[in-house]
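Why does this matter for the project? Reviewers at the last site visit asked to see concrete outputs rather than summary tables. In response, this paragraph embeds two records directly. Each consists of the residue sequence and, immediately after it, the corresponding structure tokens. Nothing has been edited or filtered.
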Amino acid sequence: MSISGKKGGKRLVSDINVTPLVDVMLVLLIIFMVTAPMMTQGIDLDLHETTDAAQPREQNDKPLVISVSKDGQITLNDTAMSGNDQLMQELAQRSEEDKKNQMLVIRAERGVPYGKVASLFADARNAGFLNLTPAIR
């Protein structure tokens, strides 16, 4: 910006114009004032009470465990599988009652591609297992 003086010379104004700064700060203040009450609200959940959780699990209700190593070796309860097809055959041979009630745990070593683990979950779901869980450290 320049201002013309009496002698026709132009002089530079080196002052900072604070009006845009105040405008931006007021807009941000209004945004935070509107959004802050929304952030404290939670999601309403209706948790059902059950008495089944207090009952101990039966000994024969041990979960099936599928383990995948970095080199692609798949085991089902410490039994080596030659490939995904043999694993699917073993899972398909389980009774329908086992598929609905028995927990199937999928454990993968660090470094196994996520796509491999995701395909095992999809295959187990397609085989009819309903109670799937990943092994978490």
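We now turn to the second protein, recorded in exactly the same manner.
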Amino acid sequence: MVFNWRDDTEYYATVHDLNRLNEFLYIDVHFSSLLSVDVKTEVDFILKLTATNDYDLPKNKWTELSSSTHTRTVTCEKKSNCSRHTLVYEPYLNYQNYRLDLQVDPKTTREFITNIYIDVFFVRRGMTMFELFFRYVFVMLNIICFTYFVKRVRGYGFRTFDFEQKWVACLLLLLLLFNNPLWPILLLSSSGFVVFLDAFVTTIFFLGIWGFWLCLIDGYRYRPEERTIKKFYLPKFIPLFLLWLFFFIIYIWGQMHEKNDSQYETTNDIPGFITLEIIMFLIFLFYILWVIYACIRVFIEIKEKPDQKKRFYTFFIISAITFILTILVVSGGFVNSLRNTSLEFLATYVIYNSYLLSYSVALLPASKPTDKFSHTELDEDTTDLEESINKESENSDGVALHTHNYMKSEEESEKSSEKYSNSSSSSNETD
């Protein structure tokens, strides 16, 4: 909406017919400049946000939600639009009608500003239903794939899982949390715990993805017995945990402040917010350099392991595409902008769901020993072992019996020969 400059410098915008399916209300402002030079100045915005339901609208009964003054740094290029600033971000629509009253300090703006542009954003109800439908489609696919994956590999035992299979089994559970089957509660409830849970689930999934890429790429260089917690996982866990911690703090801090103050703007109202972003960026840059270094080392050493070359190349190509898309998603603004259109939302969730689901199918074993087959094979082996032992015992008993009979026959022959010799000697004496 365009508002012409007036002497009283007071403006207002009214939005009607909203409900929880519209998800949030986002109002921002920017100016247009007439000057032929660049301008940078401080502008005071006096804001008041009121709301009412349809049954109170004929009575002109409005409830004041917030009223405050915010100072923003406005920069304008010569004869162009000025920087955009957030006026209102209302994450929970408890009312059906909203009105924003705006006053701008004329002392700092009258000289170079001609028009004020106030933009109102909210999610269309059809988009919300679209998002809800595909969330549950992804949840069902996730459950089916995870169940089938576990069914195929459970006969081998978790300790016998391959390195990639252990990671994918854990990531499928995190993917279920990322798809968030409890997302409708976020629409219906304005509780701070729900906001915290949503932020935690989202950030913990990205932590799992980052750890999966780093550990799997670097893990190809080590034998299974060398991948110990102290020497292999702990050095990777420390920077990843710090990266997740800063990412989570920034995410939840912004969400909670926007919930408590609809006129809150993250970059201006958090002391040291830019410092937090710089620290997180440096840690993330260190992570990217580590991944690149691990890839180079693996490409050099994988030539000596031809059995793992195909597995690594498959993983590397799929993960590289997903990694690039992830960078584009994060740089494009995951929290707010990706929920504005159905295409952006669908692209975001298709990236991670298709990546993990397809990779889990690729890691399925060629055949799975069922429990019945395993017990039968064990019983047959046990039976064969018992039969061989019995045969050996029978053979040993037969040899012992034969030896005993042979010794007995020798004793009898000796006795008979002695008896014969005695009888011969007695007959000679008689003669």
